[in-house]
Write a structure and sequence with these properties.
Blueprint: E1 2-4, E2 11-13, E3 17-19, E4 27-31, H1 32-45, H2 47-68, E5 84-88, H3 101-109, H4 112-118, E6 119-123, H5 124-136
Antiparallel strand pairs: 1-2, 3-4, 5-6
Length: 137
Amino acid sequence: MMKTCTVCKRELPLTDFYKRARSHDGIDYSCKSCVNERRRLWASKNASKLKQHSEKYRLRRRDEAMDYLGGRVCTCGYSDVRALTIDHINGLEGNPRQQGIKIHNEILNMTETDAREKYQVLCWNCNWIKRMEGKMR
């Protein structure tokens, strides 16, 4: 089956269109490349708005993940969320710069028991001490 994109007017296979429940045929009226271009343009024009939204989302997911792990308090008793972090109990898997929201989503998709076996909430001081003790062994 083929469909014509209303933006670029090209006739393309249905696999080149996103699904859209509100459309009469369940398929978007614009092809994926036109939709992606429109999104890129919007993102470039609204960079600060997008950055602000992303930061709010990241912080909200971080707080949800910390609550899921048992609350926003370190084992030492420190509870200021500005200095708390989510720690991998058995070390980090992969590149730490590519973690971030991925970890928060992973935690929230695990059972609480599994999440607490793999992650913990630590303050940066305890996290750093744990890191240094591991290197000294």
